[in-house]
Design goal:
By secondary structure, this protein is α+β, with helices and mostly antiparallel strands. It has two domains: about 190 residues, Quinone Oxidoreductase, Chain A, domain 1 (Alpha-Beta Complex); about 160 residues, Rossmann fold, CATH 3.40.50. The chain is about 30% helix and about 20% strand. The chain has twelve helices and 17 strands. Strands 3, 4, 5, 6, 7, 13, 14 and 17 form an eight-stranded mixed β-sheet that branches. A three-stranded parallel β-sheet has the order 8-9-10, with helices on one face. Helix 12 links the parallel strand 13 and strand 14. The radius of gyration is 26 Å and the shape is globular. The N and C termini lie far apart (about 80 Å).
Length: about 425
């Protein structure tokens, strides 16, 4: 009996070990089937310490969607506002930021037409762009020319479509008009300047920091320092221009985040709306900066607009796409822009390339107003070693720990300047 009991015990242990081994193999197979990707995660609204690169499940395309293996992502000032929670109707964190990317079509969902695996594309994305893989509706995806790099494509879609629609759909830019461009050294500012050059006899007044003047001087007609009182200078140039071309009506568009169109020959009055860049002065949202900017904005009287033949218009490309569903209108604009690109009349300006892990330093460069053109997150780029310790630390449990506010000043990466 003892021998029989011992035999049963050994057999039981063998069966248990076999079952455990089988379950382990099954778990390993299931974990291998669950594909993951790297993505930038915004864990909460606030400073740069709220951003980190982590792994998350890879999305699969739904009906009518395109799955894109991302090569490059655009980094916009709007992304800084999202990080700070400075705009309305934001999704609840944690979330993956980013609204535009470029890459290669990896697969398509059911009933998706117009794209094949291997197509080089750029796309608008309703968040989730800062990742190795994105899925987005086919109506938001556009093929890119063979000559266009992925970095240029990521710098093209939002900037040039927004600039084109503000100039030609909203401000009705035409021969002989003048355009005043705030932040002329940025991605949108350079897009506006280039598009203005496609219309005869358009005068472009650019406002930018002094250190950018040498780089952008050829893209504008007149250039002024953003820290100087340029109002009188611009007024004087406008008056001379009107006297010299008395048959032409001056039209000025202030392209920060609002368009200011001045359609009167007699009333050359200037109303400057403070752009959102003036409210985002630090890492986190500042009520005092917002209040100061609001107080400094000249108040607009609707009756005066009527009496002086002035127009004030706002424009949001993202709302046009994701809330109003005007994808066909945006596609027609994109077709026109790609035609101009193929004719070598426009070309996106890329400031620098950054790895996903360098997103904090890239955002800091925008905070510092150091960029000339567009900053790009290069998904395949290897992070440059930090001069100091890494911006993310690993805890004893193997999880990334967020750094305290203010620690970013002691760390710096060297970007690849395009």
């Amino acid at each position: 009996m003892a021998k029989e009991a011992a035999g049963m015990t050994e057999e039981t242990e063998y069966m248990i070990d076999r079952q455990v081994s089988k379950e382990a193999d099954t778990a390993a197979e299931s974990s291998g089937d669950a594909k993951e990707m790297r993505a930038v995660i915004l864990s909460g609204f606030g400073g740069l310490n709220k951003l980190r690169v982590s792994r998350k499940p890879m999305p699969e395309p739904q009906e009518g969607e395109v799955k894109i293996r991302v090569k490059a992502c655009g980094l916009n000032f709007l992304d800084l506002m999202v990080r700070q929670g400075a705009i309305e109707n934001l999704p609840k964190p944690p979330l993956v930021p980013g609204f535009e990317c470029s890459g290669i079509v990896e697969s398509v969902g059911e009933n998706t037409e117009g794209f094949e695996i291997g197509d080089r594309v750029m796309a608008f994305v309703n968040y989730n762009a800062w990742a190795e893989v994105v899925c987005t509706p086919a109506v938001l995806v556009h093929k890119i020319p063979d000559e266009m790099t992925f970095a240029e494509a990521a710098a093209f879609s939002l900037n040039f479509v927004a600039a084109y629609m503000m100039l030609f759909e909203v401000a009705n830019l035409r021969d002989g008009m003048s355009v005043l461009v705030h932040s002329a050294g940025g991605g949108v500012g350079q897009a506006v300047a280039q598009l203005c050059s496609t219309v005869p006899n358009v005068t472009v007044f650019g406002i930018a920091s002094c250190f950018k003047h040498t780089a952008i001087r050829d893209s504008v007609t007149h250039l002024f320092d953003r820290n100087a009182d340029y109002t009188q200078e611009v007024k004087r140039d406008i008056t001379c221009d009107v006297k010299y071309k008395c048959a032409k009506k001056p039209c000025f568009s202030s392209l920060s985040f609002a368009i200011l169109c001045y359609l009167s020959l007699l009333f050359l009055m200037f109303v400057f709306l403070s752009g959102a860049s003036n409210t985002v002065t630090g890492e986190t949202k500042s009520f005092f900066s917002f209040a100061k900017s609001w107080w400094q904005v000249e108040k607009v009287n609707p009756i005066k607009l009527y009496e002086e033949n002035k127009v004030i218009a706002g424009f949001s490309l993202l709302n046009l796409l994701f809330k109003q569903g005007r994808c066909s209108l945006v596609k027609s604009v994109m077709d026109k822009l790609l035609c101009l690109y193929n004719q070598k009349k426009i070309k996106p300006v890329v400031d620098s390339l950054w790895a996903l892990e360098e997103v904090k330093e890239a955002m800091q460069r925008i905070h510092d107003r150091g960029n000339i053109g567009k900053l790009i997150l290069d998904v395949e780029k290897t992070p440059t070693p930090l001069m100091a310790s890494d911006s993310t630390e690993t805890s004893e449990t193997g999880e990334e720990e967020e750094e305290p506010e203010g620690d970013n000043d002691s760390k710096e990466r060297m970007p690849f300047i395009h």
